[in-house]
Write a structure and sequence with these properties.
By secondary structure, the protein is an alpha/beta fold. Helix content is 31%, strand content 27%. It folds into 2 domains: 162 residues, Medium-chain alcohol dehydrogenases, catalytic domain (Quinone Oxidoreductase, Chain A, domain 1, Alpha-Beta Complex), CATH 3.90.180; 148 residues, 3-Layer(aba) Sandwich (Rossmann fold), CATH 3.40.50. Strands 3, 5, 6, 7, 8, 15 and 16 form a 7-stranded mixed sheet that branches. The longest helix has 20 residues. InterPro entries: ADH-like_N, ER, GroES-like_sf, NAD(P)-bd_dom_sf, YIM1/Zinc_Alcohol_DH_Fams.
Length: 349
């Protein structure tokens, strides 16, 4: 029987209930600049579920069937004659626009729709597949804050608030902020997760942690107490009062209109700045690839220096479609999970 590939796809636009696992012929390389990757893990981001829902089809072309997955990790099993940076057996991780949640992936290194980096030694494939999107998002936000606060000495040593300590982006951003910029970090978590934060992120990564289910976090932090807010969950309006004059709020979610911000936070410092990077980082795929190409070395360095720990809350084998759908619903709704949801492609059958 011919070798086969299995892929997670949405044959029609809709929520995760429409997802299926498609079986097709295993691809082969047809160009000297291509490599064939045997994918061992792929993670699901909110961006994947938004595209599959069809909500963006008026703004961007999303062909059907839609192939899910952006982040992946795997092993190169075939290399084109013109490829010099990779060899058979190399373990790689990165981005691919045309559906990384599959067992075999042909990547053309001459095209901008995929970027590969070698997996740092000691990092499991499941962990590697969880990192590209969230690491880029975190690094871009923190570097922008560092630049914005340059006249105040940059981000180093500043007090920052990043909600959702065990969220996909928040968990990585908090670690980088603490270990690279030595920030005083404030975050939030649900009652159940409060006791888990140090275990996942490391003791001392979060200096002050609030239970958002039992307390008004913004009031507890206080007005004008932080230099930088990195809004990872779309509640910038709630957090603006925390910021000192001259401070910054960056959101990866869509910001409310200025009138709403004014109504929600009438006492917010008037000289603070609010910015949204969500479109440029997660929805602008081309820019995401360029960013990964520039930052993957930095991510690998942080991993090798134990300054980032991958946070993977749940995994599922590709053959367990019911569990995949369940967890994709959680990703789409932004509810309840710890870190990233990763599909184990090595367990396909």
């Amino acid at each position: 029987m011919a070798a086969q590939r299995q892929s997670l796809i949405a044959p029609s636009f809709g929520n995760p209930s429409v997802y299926v696992v498609e079986t097709s012929s295993q691809p082969t390389i047809t160009s000297d600049t291509e490599v064939l990757v045997q994918v061992q893990a792929a993670s699901i981001n909110g961006h994947d579920t938004v595209l599959a829902s069809g909500k963006t089809k008026a703004l961007q072309h999303v062909p059907l069937p839609h192939r899910l997955g952006l982040d992946f990790a795997g092993t190169i099993i075939e290399v084109g004659a013109a490829v010099n940076d990779f060899a058979n057996g190399d373990q790689v991780y990165g981005f691919y626009t045309h559906g990384a949640a599959c067992t075999h992936l042909v990547v053309d290194l001459s095209k901008p729709n995929a970027v590969l980096s070698k997996v740092p030694a000691g990092l499991a494939m499941i962990e590697a597949a969880s990192l590209p999107a969230v690491a880029i998002t975190a690094i871009v936000a923190l570097k922008r804050a560092d630049t914005f606060l340059e006249e105040q000495g940059g981000l180093r040593g500043k007090t920052i608030f990043i909600p959702a300590a065990l969220g996909g982006v928040g968990s990585v951003a908090l670690q980088i902020a603490k270990h690279e910029w030595h920030c005083r970090t404030i975050s939030s978590a649900s009652t159940k997760k409060m006791s888990q934060v140090d275990g996942y992120l490391g003791a001392g990564v979060v200096d002050q942690l609030y239970d958002y289910t039992t307390t008004d976090v913004a009031k507890q932090v206080g007005k004008g107490k932080v230099d930088f807010v990195f809004d990872t969950i779309g509640k910038a309006g709630d957090y603006i009062p925390m910021i000192r004059k001259g401070g910054l709020c960056i959101s990866i979610a869509r910001l409310p209109p200025g009138s709403a911000l004014k109504d929600d936070a009438p006492n917010a410092p008037t000289q603070s700045r609010v910015a949204c990077i969500g479109q440029g980082v997660m929805n602008g795929i081309d820019s995401a690839f360029r960013l990964w190409a520039k930052t993957s070395y930095g991510v690998s360095r942080l991993l090798e220096e134990n300054k980032i720990k991958a946070v993977v809350g749940t995994t599922a084998p590709l053959y367990d479609l019911a569990k995949i759908k369940e967890k994709c619903f959680d990703v789409a709704n932004g509810r309840g999970g710890v870190g990233k949801f990763v599909i184990d492609m090595s367990a396909a059958r």
